[in-house]
Specification:
- The complex is a heterodimer of chains A (204) and B (254).
- By secondary structure, chain A is an all-alpha fold.
- In chain A, 67% of the residues lie in helices and 2% in strands.
- Chain B has one domain.
- Chain B contains 8 helices and 8 strands; from the N terminus they run αααββαββββααββαα.
- In chain B, the strands form 2 sheets. In chain B, strands 2-1-3-4-5-6 form a 6-stranded antiparallel sheet, sandwiched between helices.
- With 254 residues, chain B is of the alpha+beta class.
- Classes of the chains: A mainly alpha (204), B alpha+beta (254).
Chain lengths: 204, 254
């Protein structure tokens, strides 16, 4: 694998993470991180939507009339989101999670990461790198989601993936952790940790 | 080819939109049966939870087939009644009311036209009826189970489409809220059949509620609590003629 492709995959995971560096997709990362299961399903959904939409639009990139390109992007992204939602609703294992995530699956359409990567990358690159870029950005988003959800489920419900971890020790779940503001505090902590490791992100 | 000409743009967008619409319609048709089966099992597990056969989490773990089997094993009869309390028709075996069906009946109850609302009676005598109404962001609905031949509430389960997580969503997620209903009595003699009271239900010095048909609302979720309160009043109000007849049949003859 050449260096450029490797950079395409690795950059969004840490150095150029869509949530902590570009500060995109904040809304849903606060809303769906109460449980790890929900965060995992959301992360996978965004990876699929981001990857496949980038692939499709990269394949179409030379045919799209530039005046209506945003509309064409929107149509393709919306189609992918609806497909993901329909598939999640059809399986017994994911039906309850889809219900729990409710509107947030549909709101992937408005997730700036998806449209942002298509506009910035997929329309100017070949299909394969575009697909990888979409998947990597989805994964970078998902990684933060899972980190936040790990702490919120552990401290807010005393469980991980619904399995009791702290409660049998007599831990009293902290209700603040369940509420969205705590996700913002956690997110701030993650940004703090990342900036102390990656000095070039610090503003002078 | 000039991809920026008007003709090209119009033709291009037409083709893309038609194609996407066709794909979505095709997938939606293909998955419809599975989605409806999931929704039905979910509805049944809500009724079983309200009637205290198992908790929602247990039912979810056991899978759709087990949920349907349990319902089939426990149900005695299911039928629809009118707001006059008279039985209209038996429901087909295994048929339940989806939230969409409830919505339809909700309109009918409200505008006074002939609603057909379902009653589910289990083998142990527990009677389960649905409620449906508007929460803050979307519909709220649920099931209330009554002890055999009485107006005492055995259990309740509520669901919602898009109430705020951590606040209004507690009607579904907080077992303590649903447990408040247990042992309360619906008062079918007034229009205020049941009350969810903001600021706490009035209590006697010994800590018990003054009246039997009141419970505490959810803190921070006034609109959802009010919506659920209205839903319960509307629906139990529609059932009041049925319950008056079923619980105390002699009074009507006298």
């Amino acid at each position: 694998m050449d260096a450029k492709l490797k950079e395409t995959i690795l950059n969004p995971i840490f150095k150029g993470n869509p949530i902590t560096v570009l500060v995109l997709g904040i809304c849903s990362s606060l809303a769906v991180t109460v449980t790890l299961k929900g965060a995992l399903v959301m992360a996978l959904s965004v990876i699929v939507v981001c990857g496949v939409s980038s692939l499709i639009l990269s394949l179409l990139r030379n045919t799209i009339p530039s005046r209506v390109r945003i509309i064409v992007q929107l149509v393709v992204v919306a189609m992918m989101v609806i497909l993901v939602d329909q598939v999640l609703k059809s399986f017994e294992a994911t039906y309850a999670i889809d219900k729990q995530l409710s509107v947030y699956i549909g709101l992937i359409i408005t997730n700036c990461i998806v449209m942002g990567r298509i506009e910035a990358f997929a329309l100017g690159n070949k299909p394969w790198p575009s697909f990888l870029d979409g998947v990597a950005n989805g994964a970078g988003y998902g990684l933060i989601l899972i980190i936040v959800a790990f702490f919120r489920e552990l401290l807010g419900s005393g469980t991980l993936f619904g399995v009791d971890i702290l409660n049998w020790l007599g831990y009293v779940p902290n209700n603040l952790v369940i509420l969205p503001p705590f996700a913002l505090i956690l997110l701030g902590c993650i940004v703090w940790v990342q900036r102390s490791i990656q000095k070039d992100l610090q503003e002078k | 080819m000039n991809t920026n000409s008007n003709t090209y743009t119009v033709i291009y967008t037409t083709i893309i939109v038609t194609l996407v619409a066709a794909i979505l319609a095709f997938v939606s048709q293909g998955l419809k049966a599975k989605q409806e089966a999931n929704e039905k099992a979910d509805t049944i597990s809500q009724m079983l939870t309200a009637a205290k056969f198992a908790t929602k989490a247990e039912l979810q773990k056991s899978g759709n087939t087990a949920v349907l089997a349990k319902y089939d094993e426990q149900i005695e009869q299911a039928f629809t009644v009118g707001t006059d309390g008279k039985k209209i028709a038996d429901l087909e075996r295994g048929k339940v009311f989806s939230p969409k069906d409830l919505k339809k009946q909700n309109y009918k109850i409200k505008d006074g036209s002939d609603a057909e609302i379902p009653v589910f009676i289990f083998k142990n005598g527990t009677t389960v009826v649905p409620v449906y109404g508007a929460g803050l962001w979307g519909p709220v609905w649920g099931y209330i189970a009554f002890e055999p031949g009485s107006t005492t509430i055995k259990g309740a389960y509520f669901d919602h489409e898009s109430e705020t997580a951590g606040l209004g969503a507690k009607i579904k997620d907080d077992p303590a809220f649903q447990a408040e209903f247990e042992g309360e009595k619906a008062d079918f003699t007034t229009a205020n059949v049941f009350d969810i009271v903001k600021g706490g239900a009035p209590k006697n010095p010994d800590g018990k509620s003054v009246t039997d048909n009141m419970i505490d609302a959810i803190t921070g979720a006034t609109m959802t609590s009010n919506g659920l309160d209205a839903a319960i009043d509307t629906w139990l109000g529609a059932y009041s003629a049925y319950f008056k007849g079923a619980v105390n049949p002699k009074t009507e003859e006298e």
